[in-house]
Design a protein that fits this description.
Elements lengths: L1 H19 L22 H34 L1
Length: 77
């Protein structure tokens, strides 16, 4: 467990340093920002994130139900 925590922390530090050295892209959205507020998330990205959360919740709920049914099937036999 300590090895996972160590490597996770190391990866986090490396990624943060790489982001700090990233170059400034200049003008956000290449000058195509209609709202002029720093290029917000597109509505399709928000929709995609919402759909991903719903599918993940559905999958985890089905997994939980399956885990609850297994012991009752074993006890019935």
């Amino acid at each position: 467990m300590r090895v996972k925590i160590f490597f996770s922390t190391l990866l986090l530090l490396i990624v943060n340093v790489a982001l700090l050295y990233a170059q400034d892209p200049g003008e956000p959205c290449g000058g195509n920002d209609v709202d002029n507020n720093g290029c917000p998330l597109d509505t399709w990205v928000v929709l995609l994130a919402f759909v991903a959360i719903v599918i993940a919740a559905w999958h985890l709920n089905n997994k939980r139900k399956a885990a609850l049914l297994v012991p009752t099937k074993l006890l019935a036999e």
